[in-house]
Amino acid sequence: TVFEARSTSGGMVTGSIPGFRAGREPVERDLSWLAAAGVELRHGQKVGTDVTLAGLRAAGYRYIVAAAGAQKGVRLGVPGDEATGVWDGLVFLRAARSGQLSELPGRVAVVGGGDVAIDCARTARRLGAGEVTLVYRRSRREMPAQREEIEALLEEGIPILEQTLPVAVIAERGRLSALRCA
């Protein structure tokens, strides 16, 4: 039995990673294989809340594997980052993947140099952002993202503003109006 906190299976592949990078077909194939092997999937079951280890033991489970995903995003950590219009990267990707966010007009700055940041920038472009810029505190050479992802970003015409460190979010009436960088 697999206890899944979300209402669907597939973790980040189906819930956060953009469809242009990872489609549902391989996940559906794996889920079909699991079902054929007799694995039961229980959705909406958060371990620690809906299901406890003590409860699983009492129900007769002899072996328990905790395979929690690392699905927690990171805030900017600068003054003003709670302003409306500032998104945690994983929250942004989940909203886009689920269809809750279907368009994103205007200018977008994405802060970071990893694969999540690149996914956010490429997704913002696909959601209609007029101008998208990736802001990274170090050089492009030092970015932790996969090289092919960086190349895909550049091929889509999304520039990288290197050696630029955000120091504050400027907000007007609680809404993002500018990003101050050093």
Distance between the termini: 51 Å
Give me the secondary-structure category: alpha/beta
Helices, by number, come to 6
**Residue share in helices?**
25-40%
Q: Strand count, sense and closure of the main sheet?
A: 3 strands, parallel
The pLDDT mean sits at 91
Low-confidence stretches: none
Instruction: Note the beta-strand portion.
Output: 15-25%
What's the SSE pattern?
A: EHHEHHEHEHEEE
- The order of strands across the largest sheet is 3-4-5
Q: What best-fitting shape do the alpha-carbon axes yield?
A: elongated
Radius of gyration: 20 Å
What quaternary form is this?
single chain
In total, the number of strands is: 7
Notable characteristics:
single chain, 182 residues, alpha/beta, three-stranded parallel β-sheet, two-stranded parallel sheet, 6 helices, 18% strand, elongated
